[in-house]
Amino acid sequence: MKPEELEIKAAAELAKQQAFDVRLFTCSSRGCQSSEALGVIAGLKAEIKARQLEGKVQVNGSGCMGLCSKGPLVRMTTKTQKDILFSEIKPEMAATVVEQVVVPVLEGKKIEKPGGDLARHSLDLNDPFFAMQVFSVLENNGKMDPEKLDDYIARDGYKALRKALKMSAEEICQEMLASGLRGRGGAGFPTGLKWDLTRKVSSEIKYVICNGDEGDPGAFMDGSVLEGDPHAVIEGMLIAARAMNATHGVFYIRAEYPLAVERVEKALRQARAAGLVGKNVLDSGWGFDFEIRLGAGAFVCGEETALIASIEGKRGTPRPRPPFPAVKGLWDQPSCINNVETLANVPIILLKGAKWFSSRGTEKSKGTKLFALTGKSKNNGLVEVPMGMTLRDVIEKIGGGTDSGLKIKAIQTGGPSGGMIPEYQFDTPVSYENLQQLGSMMGSGGMIVIDENDSVVELAQFYLDFCVDESCGKCAPCRIGGTQMLHLLSKIVDGTGTAEDIRTIRKVAKAMQKASLCALGQTAPNPTLSAIRHFEHEFTERLLPAATPQA
Question: pTM to 2 decimals?
Answer without folding.
Answer: 0.95
